[in-house]
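[job 4471] stage=fold_predict status=RUNNING
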Amino acid sequence: MCRSIPGDSPGLVAYYKMDVSSGNTVHDFSSYSMHGTFRNINPATDWVTSGAAIGDKSVHLYPTGSWQGQQLEYKAEDGSRFWVDSVGINSRTAGVHIYQVEARPNSIAGIPNSQPVSDYFGVFTALHKADNYNINYSSDNKFCSAETYSRMNNEFFSWNRLPTTVEARAAYIKTDGFSREFIVPGAAGGQLSIRGPESICRGSSMELIAETDLLPVWNTGHQGKILNISAPGKYWATVYSGICAVTDTFTVEERLLPAIELSKGVSLCAGGQATLTAPAGFAKYQWSNGSQASSIQVSETGTFWVDITVDDCVYRHHMEVLAEDCPVIPNIITPNGDGLNNLFSIQGIEMKNVRLEIFNRWGKTIYKDNNYKNTWSPSNVAAGIYYYYIKSGPSSREYKGWIEIIK
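[job 4471] inference complete, writing structure tokens
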């Protein structure tokens, strides 16, 4: 099987790896620990390096027919894949094993120091060499260039570089068909990951951050690790390292506008107050007059706004306070000089460009003012019934009625 086995495997009586290089003790790796001692051995000269094709894990393939179309794949725990295909159809080899050694090799001579090496793979062709075969390697860590190094087995300390082709993020190497061991340190095209909030409030801004050691170029044309955005959408960045390019994409959704119902227009009687109310239960309120309550009292017309904070989003709503006639018109005046009820005083109407006409019972105008200010006193008018006509300046509404003067 070209692999080591667990020392507690069922039925295992003794397990001697013979992979030490000094001393005269041979260790039993089974649960019985029946260690032994070599006799008549010179530890300094008798230990030799084995070239046996043994790894920590392995897979194998022994086809019953032709090698045509056959493929053997091994997938490591880190997500990397190593597979063999294109075995010569006339090959006499009985089978193929792939094994992985989850450790650095006993030597990395011939491999540049800049290349990270933490494990390696081997291909063992049983009984006979293959006419040829291809090895293929891919990794979850994307790379766009790779260098492959090979040696015959563990007896050979020097690694040789092999021509390598990279297509679709995988390395392809054609071999001579012999059993070999391989190291494929992929050259990544730069590491890149975009992070940031996955949703944005309407009318707000936020930052997307590209985590990389290189200079990212965004789809907006911006260059830099931080991109300020103010709208939802799909954003991506690319980093370049030589001929290699790596791109990451990040999607930002718009946070849904909550259902907030506010009156668009509120009426205000002259001299009175109106209540502007926002729905209760939200995190924060900020009115245009500085109040932070959910409702306010206003005594002036105009446009007011309130900022409502919902899940860290701030939504602004406007409300218009409009002048409304709420007339209170007297029907009796007693101009007797006592300071009470001496004037024809209209309440509930904004006294701006208010037109007033007073008529006697025959329809004759006895008083007229196009900008009345509640100043008419009928002290020089005979007692009796009179009639009025009022036109509001702010609303243009007309009011007619009678008034009795008592003396």
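[job 4471] summary: Residues 43-46 form the longest helix (4 residues).
[job 4471] exit 0
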